[in-house]
Write a structure and sequence with these properties.
Elements (H helix, E strand, L loop, with lengths): L5 H10 L8 H7 L4 E8 L2 E8 L9 E2 L3 H15 L9 H4 L2 H8 L7 H5 L3 H5 L22 H6 L23 H15 L3 H10 L8 E2 L30 H4 L1 E3 L1 H15 L9 H7 L12 E4 L5 E10 L3 E8 L13 E7 L3 H16 L14 E2 L14 E4 L6 E6 L5 E5 L2 E10 L11 E4 L5 E6 L6 E7 L2 E7 L2
Antiparallel strand pairs: 1-2, 1-9, 3-5, 4-5, 6-7, 7-8, 8-9, 10-14, 11-12, 11-18, 12-13, 13-14, 14-15, 15-16, 16-17, 17-18
Helix pairs in contact: 3-10, 12-13
Protein name: Beta-lactamase-related domain-containing protein
Organism: [Torrubiella] hemipterigena
InterPro entries: Beta-lactam-related, Beta-lactam/transpept-like, Diverse_Enzym_Activities
């Protein structure tokens, strides 16, 4: 379990074994991150830390990219509660005729009723069958395309025209274009420009004081610029997104967790919560493929929602993730009112931010069903004792072709090590990854100094044991040779 200050604990692991004077920000820069801003929600309390060699701090704003969609959903649900929208409201019900005509332009006459009948719920859940997955953004701060021009894919827009390409309501198809149609519907029913309606409906009520949609204010000096590597800035500080509901939010990890906390309070039915309990539960009800209303659900071993989340990527280097716990459908052993968020501004920063977020959850002892299954290097917990569990896997292992041998053995001092093809004695360091520490020790290890992970597995009730060796190219299952 973690100490009182999770950030100090992670900092110590980051610099362990490094030359004197090395800072955590230096270590993260070596891994490719210009900066990582990290925030933790634990029992309803938010704490944060920003790792940067460029003067960034916890109040520095980053582009949230597609997390904009999740925060947008809070405004939609408020409009539903106010009676200005319904989840069953259709494109034809809400949009002015010229926008309806634009959406149906060029489509066969028989298809037009399908387009006109697309609902708010389908747009929120990416089941409307609309095109334009991602949107690239525009350079410059002035004279951005209008919402209508973005939907039309005009010359000034950075995306093709939004079209219906699949049957509505039948399957999940991620669509920033669909969220832009929803942006137009929200502007229509409120009569307000999108940044203003989001400020009034969500950002101000939730105290998200370092958040806004659209271009940066002219006097804003504490904003992250995008980098290609940890050291090489991109020629343009950032792109701007007229498709604001899809990708146009500037914010901090702490503000994102304020939104998470508001949803959690709403799910619990707390008095004065941001949403009514039924509304919040409807927002997190799965529609298709673990997707709710602009939130992605991560389920526990009983197939019940345990976490709700969204990630983001704005080209070329803004990456972000926000995730919060929920037990509203009876998920097992879920922590109460917890979550984590990170934001970064370099192309290699995503893996680094994810490593830190996973390390937080691991040290807190939170269930790890939300951790992505694709390759992601965990943080090595240098100095932590491995425990005795690994000894049941001691011995020589081999891959299915018998090309290589991997011997797990005790090094001097009794901690586990790896001898690869009979060469060297590489130390195995406990990892802050998907596997939580068992009572008798760790079962996931990092090969010290390398991006290699070894996971110890066994069948239930002490059955056959295997070792899984994970590297960037994938995972190989090893079987015992001796």
């Amino acid at each position: 379990m973690s100490s009182n200050n999770i950030f100090d604990e992670i900092d110590a692991f980051l610099v362990a074994g490094k030359p004197s004077g090395t800072t955590p920000a230096n270590v993260l820069a070596e891994l490719g991150a210009t900066s990582v801003s990290l925030a933790v929600l634990d029992g309803g309390k938010i704490t944060s830390r920003c790792y940067s060699n460029y003067g960034y701090n916890e109040q520095t704003v980053y582009q949230a990219a597609s997390i904009s969609k999740a925060i947008n959903s809070l405004a939609v649900m408020r409009l539903v509660e106010q009676g200005r929208l319904a989840l069953t409201s259709t494109v034809k019900d809400v949009l002015p005729q010229d926008l309806v005509a634009l959406l149906t332009e060029g489509s066969p006459a028989a298809q037009r009723p399908l387009i006109e009948g697309i609902t708010v719920k389908q747009l929120l859940s990416h089941t409307a069958g609309l095109s334009v997955s991602g949107i690239h953004g525009n350079t410059g701060d002035e004279d951005l395309p209008t919402t209508k021009e973005s939907i039309a894919g005009s010359l000034r827009a950075s995306n093709p025209r939004v079209r219906q390409v699949e049957l509505p309501g039948t399957t999940y198809r991620y669509s920033g274009g669909g969220i832009t149609v929803l942006q137009a519907m929200m502007e229509t029913v409120t009569g307000h420009h999108y940044p203003d309606l989001m400020r009034e409906l969500v950002l101000e009520p939730l105290g998200m004081a370092r958040s806004w949609y659209g271009v940066l204010p002219q006097d804003e000096e504490n904003a992250a610029s995008v980098y290609v590597t940890a050291l090489q800035p991109f020629p343009i500080k950032h792109f701007n997104f007229p498709t604001m509901a899809a990708a146009g939010l500037w914010t901090t990890p702490s503000d994102l967790l304020r939104a998470i906390a508001a949803v959690q309070a709403s799910l619990d039915g707390e008095e004065g919560a941001f949403l009514k309990q039924d509304t919040a539960r409807a927002m997190l009800e799965e529609v298709d493929s673990d997707v709710a209303l602009s939130w992605f659900l991560k389920k526990d071993e009983n197939d019940k929602p345990a976490w709700f989340s969204h990630s983001g990527h704005n080209y070329p280097g803004f990456f972000s993730l926000v995730i919060g716990s929920t037990d509203h459908l009876g998920s097992a052993e879920m922590p109460k009112n917890c979550g984590v968020a990170f934001m970064t501004n370099s192309e290699d920063g995503a893996n680094v931010g994810h490593m830190l977020a996973v390390a937080v959850a691991h040290r807190k002892g939170w269930p790890m069903s939300w951790v992505r299954k694709t390759w992601s290097m965990p943080l090595g917990l240098s100095g932590q004792l491995a425990g005795s569990r690994w000894k049941a896997w001691e011995g020589v292992w081999t891959d299915k072709d018998g090309k290589h041998t991997y011997e797990m053995k005790a090094l001097e001092g009794g901690e586990p090590g790896l001898v690869f093809d009979g060469v060297g004695s590489l130390q195995l360091v406990p990892a802050a990854g998907r596997r939580l520490k068992k009572e008798n020790g760790y079962e996931e290890f990092v090969v010290e100094g390398m991006e290699v992970v070894m996971t110890l597995e066994e069948e239930k009730d002490g059955g056959e044991k295997v070792v899984k060796l994970s590297q960037d190219a994938g995972t190989v299952e090893l079987t015992r040779a001796k």
